[in-house]
């Protein structure tokens, strides 16, 4: 007699197999049948749980392959090993064919449900991620638009500030013009002298009572002719000392001569300074008259100090062509120099050892024949025979000089002579700038800008001269008139 039993096992995920246990007729006790049934049930249950774990892993892998397909596929042989393996010793006929089909049908339905559910979950996740990405993109676009609006607002504010500053500058210029009378230098016929010989250099003493003029081979002292100092060599530069009537001259033969006034108001040379290998093109003295700075055609700048005698203490060799012009600042601790090598050197005196060191080299587009410190933070530079003068100011961040503006000036010639230095009169805020056939006189405004007050035209670009420290007198000689002309300052 056959006894059939159907055992159901329901898990939280799928409906598992129905197992038909068919027992042949045999004489067994109820207790023995119960034990056999429990062993069988436990074995099948364990096999089903293991098989479900494998199915779950397999489904997870399918989902991963769908979401992240591999770049290449490899065909593998599928094992014929049954999905559910029983550790019990059941015969192949243990599972009834009809129930097997039923189990497969229900498992397939469950698998389809699980796959559909997971795919829907993944689609929902992807939609959520897509929406999040879109939100981030929209936020980024809004942020960029906001930044652009802020930039445009800042730009408008900068333009408004610039316009306000420009209007203020124009207003200040008008006020400056109202506060300062027009000026001019008028030619004084009483003190004009015919000088047929070439006159390369002119100097005035501190109280404007003496004029020293270097003719072809002579040095003459005037307002009233006092003395002719004979010299066989051509003079390029003359400078009175600050605290006496002694003066210094630089010659074409590379020498520098110190001239000393004696008790009879005559001048004799006190000392000859040798050391340069080229003509002396420019000389400076400091306010204490214990330092002479010379610039030469030999491309060097020399510093001469006075102890018992004058001697050279240092030489700057950074220029590669003739050094044309030099200027000291108000504090007397910075020197600027221009050269035919298209460079401006900024040289600074050390507080530790008093040596002079090159702190900055400024490249220029055109060679310049003259420059001048206006104050410690600003200097001017005149390119040769150009219609613009350049202004350099110190940058507060880098502590370096940089070109900040250009001032229109008159030239009248494409040629220019180098032996007429720029000069600034602090008491009158007045800058003298020879350029081509013109001597331009410019007044510095309160805002730091220069306004050309007068441009004196000559018939030749060979013009030499000097203005007194107080800006009251301007003395010149030019090859056109061949006269030493004296002009006096006038305000209207």
UniProtKB/TrEMBL annotation:
Is Iron set as a keyword in this record? no
Q: Where is the signal peptide?
A: none
Print the keywords alphabetically: WD repeat
One Pfam family name from the record?
WD40
Question: Which residue ranges run through the membrane?
Answer: none
Q: Which Gene3D superfamilies match?
A: YVTN repeat-like/Quinoprotein amine dehydrogenase
So which domain of life are we looking at?
Eukaryota
Renumbered ranges of WD repeats: 228-260, 273-304
Give the matching InterPro entries.
WD40/YVTN_repeat-like_dom_sf, WD40_repeat_dom_sf, WD40_rpt
Q: Which PANTHER family match?
A: CYTOSOLIC IRON-SULFUR PROTEIN ASSEMBLY PROTEIN CIAO1-RELATED, WD40 PROTEIN CIAO1
Question: What name does the UniProt record give this protein?
Answer: Uncharacterized protein
């Amino acid at each position: 007699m056959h006894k059939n039993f159907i055992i159901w096992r329901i898990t939280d995920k799928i409906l598992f197999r129905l197992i038909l246990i068919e027992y042949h007729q045999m004489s067994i006790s109820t207790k023995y049948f119960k034990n056999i049934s429990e062993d069988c049930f436990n074995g099948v249950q364990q096999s089903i749980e293991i098989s479900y774990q494998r199915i779950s892993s397999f489904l997870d892998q399918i989902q991963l392959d769908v979401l992240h397909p591999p770049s290449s596929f490899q065909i593998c042989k599928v094992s014929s090993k049954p999905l559910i393996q029983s550790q019990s010793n059941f015969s192949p006929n243990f599972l009834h064919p009809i129930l097997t089909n039923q189990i497969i049908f229900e498992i397939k339905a469950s698998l389809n449900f699980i796959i559909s559910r997971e795919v829907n979950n993944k689609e929902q996740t992807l939609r959520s991620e897509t929406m999040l990405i879109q939100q981030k993109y929209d936020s980024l676009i809004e942020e960029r638009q906001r930044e652009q609006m802020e930039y445009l607002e800042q730009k408008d504010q900068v333009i408004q500030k610039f316009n306000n500053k420009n209007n203020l500058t124009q207003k200040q210029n008008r006020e400056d013009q109202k506060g300062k009378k027009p000026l001019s230098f008028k030619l004084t016929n009483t003190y004009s002298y015919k000088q047929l010989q070439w006159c390369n250099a002119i100097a005035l003493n501190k109280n404007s009572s003496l004029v020293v003029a270097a003719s072809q081979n002579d040095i003459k002292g005037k307002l009233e002719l006092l003395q002719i100092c004979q010299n066989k060599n051509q003079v390029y530069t003359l400078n009175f000392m600050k605290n006496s009537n002694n003066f210094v001259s630089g010659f074409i033969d590379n020498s520098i001569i110190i001239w000393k006034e004696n008790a009879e108001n005559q001048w004799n040379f006190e000392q000859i300074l040798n050391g340069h290998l080229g003509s002396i093109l420019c000389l400076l003295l400091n306010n204490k008259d214990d330092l002479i700075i010379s610039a030469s055609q030999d491309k060097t700048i020399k510093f001469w100090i006075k102890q018992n005698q004058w001697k050279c203490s240092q030489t700057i060799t950074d220029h590669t062509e003739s050094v044309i012009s030099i200027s000291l600042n108000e504090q007397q601790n910075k020197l600027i120099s221009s050269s035919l090598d298209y460079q401006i050197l900024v040289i600074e005196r050390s507080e530790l050892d008093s040596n002079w060191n090159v702190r900055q080299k400024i490249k220029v587009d055109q060679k310049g024949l003259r420059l001048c410190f206006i104050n410690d933070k600003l200097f001017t530079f005149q390119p040769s025979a150009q219609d613009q003068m350049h202004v350099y100011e110190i940058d507060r961040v880098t502590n370096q000089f940089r070109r900040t503006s250009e001032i229109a000036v008159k030239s009248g010639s494409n040629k220019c002579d180098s032996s007429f230095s720029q000069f600034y009169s602090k008491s009158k805020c007045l800058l003298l700038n020879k350029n081509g056939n013109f001597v331009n006189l410019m007044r510095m405004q309160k805002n730091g800008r220069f306004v050309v007050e007068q441009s004196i035209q000559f018939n030749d670009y060979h013009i030499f001269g000097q203005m007194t420290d107080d800006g009251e007198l301007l003395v010149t000689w030019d090859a056109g008139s061949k006269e030493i002309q004296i002009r006096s300052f006038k305000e209207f």
